[in-house]
């Protein structure tokens, strides 16, 4: 903007009209150095030469018209900012320079070509930057003179001429410049006082908010005569650029003065003042600069790429890092990945950029702790096992051959959960220093978390590489964060770790250190491949003896470290030591004595380092060292000065004042004063606490060295206080004083650039521009926009000019004073209370020519609001250019964001007249863009610029407008938003135009709620009402007030103005205990102040013995209770309600039969209540039939006691005590096991005691008994099994079983659905629980469906079976088989009996046995003895008489007749035998 000319400067009397053309000075200076013309000594000729040079370089001739009345004009000194000209001044170029035709800008970048203007003793080329005005068709000098000497004349058309014509015209201009200069000087001399005036700021410097490391420039334009002297101040201190080389740059050119601040840091936030002073007075102007830190960046810059920045094969790579990683939080032990997508254009297939990761500006290398991956378009860093050492600022740098791009974000690592509650966090940054043959110093940093109690000290552990065993190096905890570990084995490698301890327990171990080898440093250096540089000299020394040399004294012995726990000594080996290795003995001596005591008597030391322990604190010691080898022990070294045992390093003092500053909505910048007394400072820990909680949490777990830190992860809207602690190896300091409380919310910044510049209308000398709002407004409302323009000639842009001095609030502006048929570019800046943002990218090139098309221009300022899952509202403004006829409608187009241009489709078929439209065709989760076209009678015009992509979704927390009607009938619209920021405002609109008139609607906002109240709702209020909340993520909603909705609201409002108490139930009546009558109703809503009036037949009732009234204010139940109803109570009962101005009533008519029935029921209930005061029946006597068909008489009794007696009666006779009579749990039972007709009768049970008696009767006679038996029969029927088929030797039997059979049960058998008439052949019967039907000698006629029907007095029950087909055949065949078997069994041969088992008989006696036989036909009889057949003879006589008596006779028995005898009978149906034994004895043997 420094080169642009405001309109008011162009016409200022005292302003140098040639100030804009720095190219004039360049041309003049070159011309003076190359030409010996006499004009070189004159200022006017130099200006003329500059004008000629400018005209020639542009390739144009400009006609100049002289005027007779010259106007005074002053010139300031020429600027010397062009570097090429400075070189030409300093160096007279002794030899001919090589001609060049390249134009360079200030950064020596090629921007175009120029044509040589003058050729003298040397050739040269002149270049002009794209920010200057040399490429306009008229030079600045020509424009100045044209404004001076022409009035109302048009400019002559320019044309290209030859070099000779250009030279001639240049000479004429030089002459004219001379005359102008002389005339100017003359007027100054003649009227000097009239030209002099005090300084004035034509343009004042603007305030700016910038990010750290950016450059900022303050501009101002000052007028005044004599030329004012301008001085810049920072906080009222003069700015001296020489005192801060490279920091500040001051420029003054043609009354435009600027201050440039390079690489702003936080200290540059200040108020700046520019003071202009001349002989007529002094004037000052102020501007502020606010410097913000961007996302946790640190001040140190990353090193430049080691390859430099060069283009490869003429290709310039453009690198963009997108989808980067944000501030991240992790916990120790977790895995974290950081990644970003990298876009490099042009995209070459095999080109690989250099990808580097840094932590706190230190280059990271792949290791087991961090893995790096590059996929071609995405860079990823994986931290495999987080530790607090991994905390810091991570930077991704992508380096190409032409440039590099960086992206940074902070990573915070919190402590893992302690293994012991209250234990401290683990130490960090364990490192090994000063490693030697048997000695190493281990250092670490103290943790930020002490677990709630102070850390008592630290334990150091070591582990030999190759093993997993950790051994503790110190027996007692040490508080110093450094510890010398001795006793290492030379040549072995070790790792170390540290643990902290407090009174609660031990912390987790730290991350292990890097591996360190116990060896001589010289040996380590040789292993690493380092060697001393070659000096070019060869030094010859005498060879020392191979052995037998006693080593000399160690040199330069000193105490390098002293604490109360140990003292560390270091020295250098002696010069005389032979070829073999040496060791050392250390000796100590208490100061003031001469007694030296050797410390390491048993184990000599191999390293020139040694740590002494177990020294008395407070005592002073001196130390010396001796060398030894196989030849002996050498002389001691010089003793050290007396060293007092104690900590030499003090704990730092507390840091100074802590100042928090807002940064983002989740972070705060905390700065503090450094500790004044801090030696060997390690860093600082910052702690934060929510105001009022008194609980401080660490913001960083790794010490930071600066005095400024960004604390992330804070809760938005909460207020915090901060404090800081410093630490060094001695420990942590006291906490600083707490800072002032600060609320966490985003700081205000200047807005980002607008974008999407388009032309809405164009006439001959002006153009109307439109643009889109910046994507980031900086946390404050945009106060306005500034528009700049520049002319483009032959594709070369000129200098930017301000189009408006005062900001414009609309996103459309008419740029005037343009030239017809010229080409222009535009840029726009947005401003808010923080300052003016950077300009937008230059627009496309537009030609300023009048539009003559008949159709309208494009609509503009498209805005999307009320985005939901399936709908949104699109707002737009009509086109500025109407076309031939007025606009008469709009069309809305839609397409998916990633679809091709051909995918545009219309939303509305018919044009709409409104400047808004609700679109209802969206799909949830899809992203869309929209555009609008306007139409008039001539047709549809050009489409607007499309909107930004919009995702169709309903965001969490979205609320809608709620319409409410209060108790007074006032109608209001209410909208609530929970995501407010301090700067948020509720904006109400009607038909999407902000409501500014409060005659119809009154808006009241409190907290996160806003209410728009209708003053007097009428038809004029019909429309769409919307409410939007600024500075939120699109919180808005709308409500459509239609004619129908208006009618409903007015009715509702009337109901609220004249309310009726709503009733849940009308007046009703019910009977209560003791026959009381309760009249009641329930109001849906009634306050505690409600009043009730009870009315009977228009007479008011009052509380008394007859009427008991009650009103439950919590439930709204209103009741009136009467003890009984008398004849005079017949009539109408009414309850009248009043609650404020709301009323209602309900009536109940009790007359005639209704009244009598209620009265009778009340009397009965009253009698029942009295009955129940003594023992009574809760359930009267009834019967129950069990599945086993057992009848149980039962009743349930209540209010009984031990003395209560229960008596059973049947037909008036008492049933005596029976085991089956039970009286348990209030239930009385009488069981009748097998009921029959004799059990019929009237059963009665009497309960009685001293309180009274109650009787229950059950009539089981006639119908009662039949019903009982029917239930028994029903149980029997239900227990019956399915009808089954059984074959017998007589025929076929059908049968079914029942669980119990009663002789009174009536059963009917059916055949083919007809009752069976029983005969001798078909019979039925009962055997036990089996009911059967016997079919004797079945025939084909007996086939069919059979059923047995059980009669129970109701529907009965049938069981059926199908006796036909295969079932009949199988049954009939089985019948035949059984029948044949029966015949065979009946006719087979049998021995009926008569034979004994054993016969004992005396010798010589006669034996006769007879038995019965049967069989048909007559069986054959055979007698056997000992299994042999006996034949009838004189000794044995066998007879068969009458075909059924068989006899066996032995006439004279002898001993030979003893044996086993059998009779065998057989016929064709079977055989049977009978056995007997005969035993013969002689009388002699018996004796």
Structural key phrases:
13 helices; 1487 residues; disordered N terminus; single chain; five-stranded mixed sheet; mainly beta; six-stranded antiparallel sheet; extended
Helix content: 10-25%
Count of DSSP strands: 102
Helix/strand/pairing category: mainly beta
Low-confidence stretches: 1-103, 109-161, 295-302, 304-313, 530-546, 1217-1221
Mean pLDDT, nearest integer? 82
Into which percentage range does the β-strand content fall? 35-45%
Short description:
The protein has 1487 residues and is mainly β. The protein is built from 13 helices and 102 strands. Strands 47, 48, 49, 51, 52 and 53 form a six-stranded antiparallel sheet that branches. A five-stranded mixed sheet has the order 4-11-10-6-7, with no helix packed on it.
Description:
There is one protein chain. With 1487 residues, the protein is mostly beta strands. It is built from 13 helices and 102 strands. The strands form 25 sheets. Strands 47, 48, 49, 51, 52 and 53 form a six-stranded antiparallel sheet that branches. Strands 4-11-10-6-7 form a five-stranded mixed sheet, with no helix packed on it. Strands 13-20-19-15-16 form a five-stranded mixed sheet, with no helix packed on it. A hairpin with a 2-residue loop joins strand 90 and strand 91 (1330-1336). Helix 2 crosses helix 3 and helix 3 packs antiparallel against helix 6 (163-190). The radius of gyration is 61 Å and the shape is extended.
